[in-house]
Amino acid sequence: MPQTGYVLSGLITAAIIFLGARFWAAPGAASVGFGIAGSPPSSTGFAAWLSVKGTRDIASGLFVILLMTNGSPRLLGEFMFVASLIAFADMVTVLRSRGNRALAFGMHGLTGLAIVATGACLVLGAK
């Protein structure tokens, strides 16, 4: 079961680093894809805030890589449980802004559940 957790952790990591890079490379498109209603039009200030978000996404992915290479499956799993709060908070943020409900539940909510399942594989499979 830990092997499954490590594979899922790697996939989640690749996705979050890709999304973080997208907020740097194409902030307007990334903003629309996030699902928040009424996102302001692209401006220098808004693009800068999106770069901040992108940096945090990339760093989150690097934390997972660090734990995958140096930590225990249990520690990685516990980290994943905590990290799932980011996806669930993103879901609530999109819903509170009256954003795209399909993106809120389908992307952010399901991502949160996938992260929880990954954490469970790692914690339950740890010795």
UniProtKB/TrEMBL annotation:
Membrane-spanning segments: 6-25, 46-69, 75-95, 102-126
Alphabetized InterPro entries for the sequence: DUF4267
Keywords, comma-separated and alphabetical: Membrane, Transmembrane, Transmembrane helix
Descriptive protein name: DUF4267 domain-containing protein
Top-level taxon of origin: Bacteria
Phylogenetic placement of the source organism: Bacteria, Pseudomonadati, Pseudomonadota, Alphaproteobacteria, Rhodospirillales
A Pfam family that the UniProt record links to this protein: DUF4267
